[in-house]
Specification:
The protein has about 100 residues and is α+β, with helices and mostly antiparallel strands. The N and C termini lie far apart (about 55 Å). Helices cover about 25% and strands about 40% of the residues.
């Protein structure tokens, strides 16, 4: 049992070390710590409303929630999107990825 747990932990770190960038293509991914914000789409920096949809990741094995743009727009009552950003936070075994929608 100890060998299985040890193998899972080592494989998780090796997968993180092998990545040159974030698996979804949104900027860099550090093996131990990542905290990035990237512009994804849009060219208008305006917008009076902001909505955020996030998901949680544990050990790169379990992911919870949804980062759906339409769901975030509905919650914040955004009718027109001006731009979309992506925020990524990762520390050792816990990660959080958010889609941030700006609009009116």
């Amino acid at each position: 049992m100890k060998k299985i747990i040890f193998t899972l932990i080592i494989s998780t770190f090796m997968v993180s070390c092998a990545n040159i960038g974030h698996p979804m293509g949104y900027g860099p991914l550090g093996a131990v710590y990542t905290n990035t914000k990237q512009g994804i789409s849009g060219n208008n920096p305006g917008g009076t409303k902001t909505a955020k949809a996030c998901n949680l990741n544990i050990l790169n094995y379990f992911t919870f929630s949804d980062t759906n743009v339409m769901e975030a727009m509905t919650q914040a009552k955004i009718k027109t999107v001006t731009h979309i950003n992506k925020e990524t936070f990762w520390i050792l075994v816990f990660g959080k990825s958010c889609t941030v929608i700006h609009g009116n």
